[in-house]
Amino acid sequence: MVRARSEERRADILRATLEVIAERGYRGATLSAVAERVGLSQQGLLHYYPTKEALLVAVLEDRDRWDTGGGGSRGEGPWPLELLGSLVEYNAMRPAIVQTFSALLGESVTEEHPAREFFTRRYTQVRADMAASLRAEHGEELPGGMTPERAATLMVAVMDGLQYQWLLDPDAVDMPGAFRDFLRLLRGGREDLSGPAPE
Amino acid sequence: MVRARSEERRADILRATLEVIAERGYRGATLSAVAERVGLSQQGLLHYYPTKEALLVAVLEDRDRWDTGGGGSRGEGPWPLELLGSLVEYNAMRPAIVQTFSALLGESVTEEHPAREFFTRRYTQVRADMAASLRAEHGEELPGGMTPERAATLMVAVMDGLQYQWLLDPDAVDMPGAFRDFLRLLRGGREDLSGPAPE
Fold it and tell me: Which of A146, A153, A174 to mutate to test the interface with B (most CBs of B within 10 A)?
């Protein structure tokens, strides 16, 4: 009973954090702004999330759970690539959460950053999920003899790299269009998935 | 004469900053560590670079100048794509400067960050340079009917995105190999550049 209430409170906090991020961006998402929104003292909030980084990592973990149904392991098998295209389109409508992800990813590569472990673990998982999606649609071999695992590394890089360019200059960069360009490259330049890949 | 001495001093500071970054990483590259290395008081250093961000942006501008001969505009025309592959290989041997670039890029997407303008300007330039390189080798049309401009956006995204995955998990990610995979995708999966692109 106590556990259930605590989990409910955590869900409230994450919801409030998302709202604050959407309104004020990554920098404005301070612990005190979140505490105020959810009706806790800052001390009370620290009981659940001891640092801003811990809170933001929890938000991103929660986003991953919603976006891909828990580390991409949907009951129905790997994500179709077309659905990933839709996810990028969806992301283009929520710059604040993409900004939070991108800023935290950037920080995480510095020494002893509290989000480093989360991102390292996440990318191992995401690359494996993407490889499964690629294998389901392309088989063992992609253009140039590339394995699904190697193509997965590229696909994740494209998604992340596009986010930075798009956040810096949204008018100059068509993020969803560029991601679909990349999916087309993986099909050897063809529009759709019919027929075998060219030699 | 005074100007020449001031420029020499700036060059000394940038060199010292690179050394400090290499030894202590992005977080360790504090203004006081750099001041000590170059034999200036912290006040003296602030005269040349008023903030840590300003100093690091100057280091990255300097790197761009060395790496690509000034915004990519080499006297000899656009960069051959193979040379870009070598640049990625070179980057894989200098994680500290890649870490500095990646951490600063991550921060730059937050509100009113001092490096935001530098990166926005830089990406406009880098996309144009990459498009020129792609046009020189592939002509007006890449696989799937993609223009050099659209392929340039992808290529820059791949380079940046790979850096994050590689910095987080260097044993799991072969950054130069992955970039060469991408160059091969742009050739429609072929190993080299001979012959026309497949329809």
Answer: A153
